[in-house]
Amino acid sequence: MKHVLDLTIKSKMNFVWLLVLTMATASFFTACNNNKTTGGENGKYSQKVDSILSGMTLEEKVGQMTQVTLDILMKGENRASSYEPIELDMDSVMQAFGKYKTGSVLNTANNRARTPEKWNEIVATLQEVCLAETGIPLLYGIDAIHGATYTAGATLFPQQIGQAATFNPPLVEKASEITAYETRASSIPWTFSPVMDMGRDPRWARMWETYGESQYLNAVMGIAAVEGYQGTGEDIDKNHIAACLKHFLAYASNSGKDRTPINIASRQLHEIYVPSFAAAITAGAKTVMGNSGIINGIPAHASHDVMTTLLRDELGFEGVLVTDWSDINNLYTRDHFASSKKDAVKLAINAGIDMAMVPYEYDFCTDLVELVNEGAVPLSRIDEAVRRILTLKYELGLFDHPVTLLSDYPDFGCDAFENAALETAIESISLLKNEKSILPLEKNKRVLVCGPNANSMRTLNGGWSYSWQGEKVEEFAQDYHTILESIQDKIGEANMIFSEGVSYNMAGNFYLENTPDIGAAVKAAAGVDHIILCLGENSYCEKPGDLHDLYLSDNQTQLALELAKTGKPLILILNEGRPRIISKIEYLMDAVVQIYLPGNFGGEALAEVLYGDANPSGKLPYTYPMFPNSLITYDYKLAELQQAPEGMYNYASDMAVQYEFGHGLSYTTFEYSDFEVSKADFDPDDTLSISIKIKNTGKISGKEVVMLYSSDEYASIAPDNKKLIRFKKIELQAGESKTVSFDLSASDLAFYNSDNLRIAEKGDFILRISNFEKKITLSENITFGEPSSLRL
Questions:
Q1: Band of the pLDDT at 12, cuts 50, 70, 90?
Q2: Is the CA virtual torsion 534, 481, 412, 403 positive or negative?
Q3: Would you say the CATH fold of 670-784 matches that of 36-408?
Q4: I want to staple 343 with a disulfide (CB 3.0 to 4.6 A). Which of 143, 338, 449, 485 is the partner?
Q5: Pairing of strands 244-248, 737-744
Q6: How far is CA 224 from CA 230, 242, 277, 618, in A?
Q7: Cα dist from 679 to 305, 706, 774, 775, whole Å
Q8: Nearest C-alpha neighbor of 664 from the set 181, 137, 165
Q9: CA–centroid distance for 364 within its chain
Q10: Could you tell me the fold of the domain covering 670-784?
């Protein structure tokens, strides 16, 4: 088979380069005008863009800023429900492009994946009409977030939280590159990915869309994803697509519920939420999507401070800023921040929005034209937005090649792509507990496989899989294997019994379960050697994933408790988008394996690990909580490290963590030694060399993630317990040793102070790798850039 996509990792994307580039942005948080976006007036395409812009009417310009969903262009009974088989309604298409001069379309029709052939047909027709009516190619966008998720037959990878667990950036780059190739095969040049939000709240329904709780891990993985999606040039070739960083900024909430407000200091915004976006912007991300929430009482989509002062002026982003779904209207209808829909348009465009994801109506166009004519929105703001949009269309090559053809992508869905997805799924799996080395299992032992996640492709993939909530996965993933089927393939039908015990109500909301039959599962356990208990969550996405109770469901908990009474060894498989609390049953488990949302090859990957054909190497990208009121991240403040006293005042305030960030076991053992730091005392201009030796002391090969943490002994802002500042994943054969080295500078030790100034303060720091630590001393203060002007 001819491989038009080079699956080898480019030399510049090796791990050392990733780390150097990431930390080069460690002015991360101050202006970084060296990024690769070219949306400004002096960019490569400025003359061509200005020529087009000078001949456009106001209505045509506003049309370029408008994005509608595909459903309203299809034949159907209403704007959100199309007929099947889908067919374009040419009257609606002409309204979009002939009357309103629409510049962008997104999404699929009827919330359903389409074949690449159908995508080619739809996009080609839309491009033909758009070019004839506007003279400018259409920009089509899709949520291709763990593969070309709305294209039937595409390669689906683990969701972002699982990709983070690999701690292997080249795998993330490869996954994004394959996703780009297969999305382009669908004639779509733009993905709304990667999510650069922070997964620091286990309650949040979108936690699985993130790279976890570490700013540094998010930054490194974000760079890898952007490079994979876009390639490394200024322009984007036919095998790549434009990335979209979402959701700027601080898409989190105090309640843990999706799209609800957050109150946070400007200093914390810079410290926690800016780094991942800053790194990915510097890596060249072409587009950014706004945050749907409210920050300190101001909706992000209406905040000039967030969308212009921070994003443009401080971070130097020059590309296209697009809204999330209907979020301009939400300023009026949901947030009551605008007095009307027209007022909402004024606020959002003046804040810095370039493109409105409308998505169902054209009032935006009418309102914005009126606002410009009334002087409420300056024409210069319109020209600025359209200039960025046209530049992106040039960078994507759409003016020369508005469509791509499936015939030019012969590797779509090929074996090499599927092997990459399987490899990523295997490396994501995190072995959290393995009492008495019960794993790996022997293939001749008889097992009971049970639980609601045992025989479901839907739960392996999660949301944004063939449909928004993932409820249509079973229609498209029949050629892949569930956990049950994969174990059966591994050990044979004679060695396996299946009794579900608890099942999801697939026709209802994600959290609904059918009447359980726990007794049948307990009875089935009588004749087996081990029980493989597959628990977790059904698929969900965004707001429908909000929950009140973070504990694992009552039915699943009871199933585990009853099976434990049988005395059979229990292997708990967690298939979940966020860490559901398991403290009521964890102590009864002999082994615990976290597979996150591993995609279509998750069942096969798990079977490889359970039976020793693959050695687990995944590490938790978040802290796994023990109780609902003990939610904490690895970089907690030292004041949170409290121990309960004995006696009558024995209160529950200790650090109750089920598993720590970075935790993950292996079937082999690793020994660390010879931790060296080049200088104990260093100046602001010095570069420190850090090294440590790692030896595989076990009997099989394995992969280990070497993590370097720093701690500030004293600071003007109470310091974090520790920060991850470097990591590297290595593979060692049995008995093999390697020395891992890192370079550090003072910028790696910096933080934002109360004046919104990024600073490394003189004094002592502790560097830690595994159980080793070294003290280093910075001779004097050093600041990085000017204080941020952001005051929210």
A1: very low
A2: negative
A3: no
A4: 338
A5: unpaired
A6: 10, 14, 13, 18
A7: 41, 21, 10, 10
A8: 165
A9: 30
A10: Immunoglobulin-like (2.60.40)
Options 324, 354, 635, 748, the catalytic residue: 324
The CATH number of domain 429-625 is 3.40.50.1700? yes
β-bridge mates for residue 695, sequence order: 671, 737
Torsion over CA: 318, 324, 326, 329 (sign): negative
Three-class DSSP labels, 717-729: CCCECCEEEEEEE
C-alpha span between 546 and 20 (Å, rounded): 38
Structure token pair of residue 196: 């650069």
Domain residue ranges of the chain, discontinuous segments joined by +: 36-408, 429-625, 670-784
Q: What are phi and psi of 225, to 5 degrees?
A: -65, -45
Q: What angle do CA 116, 122, 128 make, to 5 degrees?
A: 130
Q: Compute the residue count for the chain.
A: 792
Q: Name the band, by pLDDT with cuts 50, 70 and 90, for residue 508.
A: low
Q: How far is CA 459 from CA 469, 482, 535, 555, 601, in A?
A: 11, 9, 10, 17, 12
Fill in the amino acid letter for 594.
Answer: Q
Question: Are 512 and 504 within 8 A, CB to CB?
Answer: yes
Query: Known catalytic residue: 755?
Result: no
Q: Are 487 and 532 in contact, with CB atoms under 8 Å apart? A: yes
Q: Is the peptide bond before 275 cis (omega within 30 degrees of 0)?
A: no
Q: What is the pLDDT of residues 311-369, one digit of tens each?
A: 999 999 999 999 999 999 999 999 999 999 999 999 999 999 999 999 999 999 999 99
- Would strands 356-357 and 66-69 be described as parallel, antiparallel, or unpaired? parallel
Q: Is 465 helix (H, G, I), strand (E, B) or coil?
A: coil
Residue 294's nearest CA partner among 244, 242, 334, 240 is 334
Is the pLDDT reported for residue 7 higher than 50? no
pLDDT confidence of residue 16:
36
Distance separating alpha carbons of residues 29 and 310, to the nearest angstrom = 9
For domain 36-408, give the CATH superfamily: Glycoside hydrolase, family 3, N-terminal domain (3.20.20.300)
